[in-house]
Design a protein that fits this description.
This is ABC-type multidrug transport system, ATPase and permease component. It is found in: Cell membrane. The protein has 23 helices and ten strands. By secondary structure, the chain is an alpha/beta fold. Among the domains are: about 10-330, ABC transporter type 1, transmembrane domain (ABC transporter transmembrane region fold, Up-down Bundle); about 430-505, no CATH class. The strands form two sheets. It has a six-stranded mixed sheet, with helices on both faces. A four-stranded antiparallel sheet has the order 2-1-4-5, with helices on one face.
Length: about 600
């Protein structure tokens, strides 16, 4: 498994992988864009030669030489303009196409990872936060690379022209090396400072969103914390930007020194040609023109190299890291998901600690969940109820122990296939702001456009009253920020999420993790009782006629609801404290009876 302490992949191989990704997306456009970038470099780099020929021809009264130089200047100017326009248009087209491909690639990589560890682990979040910022402009990496090759070609032609005057002028390249080295070194130093300050930058963005968006608006105003948010946001930004500014000042000093070295070498070259050798006026003009352009070309080259190493190349390294991480986290799926449950689900000494922590959220959990039963999971906050559900959904793997489904290891089953046999709703549901029919239909992609399936799911969830209040029914756009969109209350969103979870007709496992907290106790109890009855009845699979043997997992803080479950699992301090039916647990007078009594007293 990948570790955040591991270095990211090497720069050049990462860039090569990104180039291959761009070639796979748009092979013809990439080749044409690269070819035009190189062609556009030639006319411009020959201008010094035409100036030399023009000067020598004019002084020697050689009309033919002057004519050649004039035609060359005109052709270079025209070709430079024409090829630049063609190159820009082609590159723009290539960038538009490859941007979509790269964004889709990064999104697909993150979604393909079986677990959600990379979405919750702070070290990974820092890398992913930077990658999300970079992926939208990562297409510039290709243009930067093409431009770098074009500038290098200009440099090569210019150095060849200088060497044609005297071989010693090749030493100008040595004087230029410090500028190249400093430009390649600078971005890494600055990027390290940015990486170090990524948590502060994320905090600054979070505070800015909190202070400027609608959802927290009421509490921001009622509590009067706006000024505090602004101050905290500024402090977080300073913690992020301070080290970056310091790094930039340090690298700027060394770059200034490097350019001073090159400037001294250029002045020496001009003096050498003017005074040290027998050179024609055209030769001197060529050195002046080519030398001045050499400084411009070196500046452009090291600038592009700086971008490549500092931003674009760094982005490709992060994308390569994500590719490697997704590959490392790929599952070893060699066990099929059973079509129906006969033995049920068993937890064998399962323990779990969240990544980068040592505290066990679940410790040595042993459970037997039988087909056709309703199992309620209760416990105080932090006891591990939702974590147990996450393990069942394979959002995480147990730290130790294993989960068996009909005697087969769940970890070796294809996650997508297993999740396709799950249904239900969760307390931290997402608000999909689509039309109501689509928001619900997403629960079963195969029947996304099946209106009758959506209507049935609405009925199962008891969400008829919600859809009935919408003017356009299931065709109502949800969310007030969209054209003709409607405001939806939290309780309404919760019922729509519940309906989405009930789109699948014959799940092996139905999970209801506090999905009805906004509903009143009576409505919640009636809803859960209806589904418990269906589970106990062993409803037949319509295609085979065989009983599905579904297990229903119910997580609720309301003990009046969970008392109707066949088995109640009581979690206390990460361990299973008690298991049994309501009457038996009450008779034991243990943890369950204590919690039940506390809640009952509160209702009295």
């Amino acid at each position: 498994m990948s570790s955040p302490d591991d270095p990211m992949p090497p720069a050049l191989p990462s860039m090569w992988r990104a180039l291959k990704r761009g070639y796979e997306a748009e092979p013809r456009l990439l080749v044409v864009a690269f070819g035009l970038a190189l062609l556009a470099a030639l006319p411009d780099s020959l201008l010094a030669l035409w100036f030399k020929m023009l000067t020598d021809g004019a002084l020697a009264h050689q009309r033919r030489l002057v004519l050649i130089a004039a035609v060359g200047l005109g052709a270079s100017t025209t070709a430079t303009w024409f090829l630049r326009v063609m190159s820009d248009r082609t590159q723009r087209r290539f960038r538009d196409q490859v941007t979509i491909a790269l964004e889709s690639h990064v999104a697909r990589l993150q979604a393909a990872v079986v677990t959600v560890e990379h979405h919750e682990r702070p070290e990974y979040l820092n890398r992913l936060a930077v990658l999300r910022d970079q992926v939208f402009v990562l297409d510039h990496m290709y243009m930067s690379l093409f431009s770098t090759c074009g500038w290098i070609l200009r440099l090569g032609v210019t150095v060849a022209l200088l060497v044609s005057i005297h071989p010693a002028l090749a030493f100008l390249i040595l004087f230029a090396l410090p500028t190249v080295l400093s430009s390649a070194w600078r971005p890494g130093v600055e990027r390290a400072a940015q990486e170090q300050g990524a948590p502060a930058n994320r905090l600054a963005r979070h505070l800015f969103v909190t202070a400027t968006t609608a959802p927290p608006g009421k509490e921001v105003r009622v509590t009067g914390i706006a000024d505090r948010l602004v101050a905290d946001r500024r402090a977080a930004w300073d913690r992020w930007y301070g080290p970056i500014a310091k790094a930039r000042w340090g690298t700027a000093f060394w770059q200034m020194l490097a350019w001073g070295i090159f400037g001294a070498g250029f002045l020496g070259a001009v003096a050498f040609v003017s005074l040290g050798i027998r050179a024609t006026p055209g030769d001197v003009l060529l050195v002046l023109a080519a030398g001045s352009r050499l400084s411009a070309y070196i500046g452009a080259t090291v600038g592009e190299i700086g971008f490549l190493f500092g931003f674009w190349l760094d982005g490709s390294r992060r994308m390569a890291w994500l590719e490697d991480y997704a590959t490392a986290m790929s599952e070893k799926a060699d066990t099929p998901v059973p079509p129906q449950l006969s033995d049920g689900i068993r937890f064998e000494h399962v323990s779990f600690a969240y990544p980068a922590t040592e505290r066990l959220v679940l410790e040595d959990v042993c459970l037997d969940l039988k087909p056709g039963t309703v199992v309620a999971i209760v416990g105080e906050n932090g006891a591990g109820k939702s974590t147990l559900v996450k393990l069942l959904c394979r959002l995480y793997q147990p730290t130790s122990g294993r989960i068996l489904v009909d005697g087969l290891d769940l970890a070796r089953m294809p996650a997508d296939t297993w999740r396709a046999r799950l249904a239900g709703a969760f307390q931290d549901f997402f608000r999909f702001e689509f039309k109501a029919r689509r928001t619900i239909g997403l629960g079963d992609l195969s029947r996304l456009d099946d209106k009758s399936a959506v209507v049935a799911a609405v009925e199962r969830a008891g969400a008829d009253d919600v859809v009935g209040r919408f003017a356009a029914g299931l065709e109502t756009q949800l969310g007030p920020t969209w054209p003709e969109g409607v405001e939806v209350s939290f309780g309404q969103w919760q019922k729509l999420a519940l309906a989405r979870g009930f789109m699948r007709d014959h799940p092996l496992l139905l999970i209801l993790d506090e999905p009805t907290a906004a509903l009143d106790a009576e409505t919640e109890h009636a809803l859960f009782e209806r589904f418990a009855a269906a589970a106990r009845a062993g409803k037949s699979n319509g295609s085979t006629g065989a009983p599905v043997g579904r297990i229903t997992i119910l997580v609720s803080h309301r003990f009046s609801t969970v008392r109707m479950a066949d088995h109640i699992v009581v979690l206390d301090g990460s361990r299973v404290a008690e298991v049994g039916a309501h009457e038996a647990l009450m008779a034991q007078g243990g943890k369950y009876a204590e919690l039940y009594g506390i809640q009952a007293a509160a209702y009295r």
